[in-house]
C-alpha cells in the first residue's frame, strides 16, 4: 500500500503498535496541568489555534520521569504550528543549562483525529529514537486525560509510530506533584497575538 511500509513487523502508518519493552513513563501532575493550560491558551486565540509544548525530565534506567514543560516560541494557526530554528535553539540551550533531557512534544489538533500527519512528521524539529509525540484532540478544550484519548506516538526507526492503547495503559502513568517540576515559557508570538486580540 502506498505510503505504508513495515519495519520490524510494525506497520509504520495508520496502525498502532505495542512494543515489547519495559519502559515506564511517569508524568507528574503539574506537567499535565501546565500542558493543558498552555494548549488551552492557544485555543482561546482568534481564531482558535493549535498549540505545542515540549516535555523534558530525566531517565532512570527504564523509567522516564517527565517533570518539565517548555513552551517554545511558535507561530500558531488553526491548522498547524511552526517553531523556528532560533526558537528551538533556545530550547536546546535551556536543556543544556538545566541538564534536562528532551522526552517529547505535545501538540493539539482541531478535531478528534489524533494521528501524526505528514506535516507533523516533516515539521517535527527533533527526531531521535524514543522521542514521544502526543497529539491532543479538540484543541485540548477538555482535559487530555485519560491519555488514551490522545494519540501517543514514538519515534522508532526513522518514523513516528502510534503506540497502542494497550501499551499506553500499561506503560504511562500520571503521578503526584514533583519537587523537580519546571515550567519554562519562551513564547513571544503567542503574547503578541493576545495583545492584538485585546487591541481589536
Ligand atoms: Zn499535528
The helix content is: 25-40%
The helix/strand series, from N terminus to C terminus, equals EEEHEEEEHEHEEEHEEH
Return the average pLDDT rounded to an integer.
Answer: 91
Largest sheet: 9 strands, mixed
Strand content: 25-35%
CATH class category label:
Alpha Beta
Number of helical elements:
5
CATH architectural group: 3-Layer(aba) Sandwich
Uncertain segments are 1-12
The CATH topology is what? Cytidine Deaminase, domain 2
Which structural class best describes the helix and strand composition?
Answer: alpha/beta
Number of strands: 13
Outline the structure in words.
The chain is of the alpha/beta class. It has one domain: Cytidine Deaminase, domain 2. Helix content is 26%, strand content 31%. It contains five helices and 13 strands. The protein has helices at 29-43, 85-98, 118-123, 165-171, 189-199; strands at residues 6-7, 10-11, 24-28, 52-60, 63-71, 75-76, 81-82, 101-108, 132-136, 151-156, 159-162, 172-175, 182-185. The strands form three sheets. Strands 3, 4, 5, 8, 9, 10, 11, 12 and 13 form a nine-stranded mixed β-sheet that branches. The chain has a two-stranded antiparallel sheet with strand order 1-2. The chain is globular, with a radius of gyration of 16 Å. The termini are far apart. Mean pLDDT is 91; it is low at 1-12. Bound molecules: zinc ion (ZN).
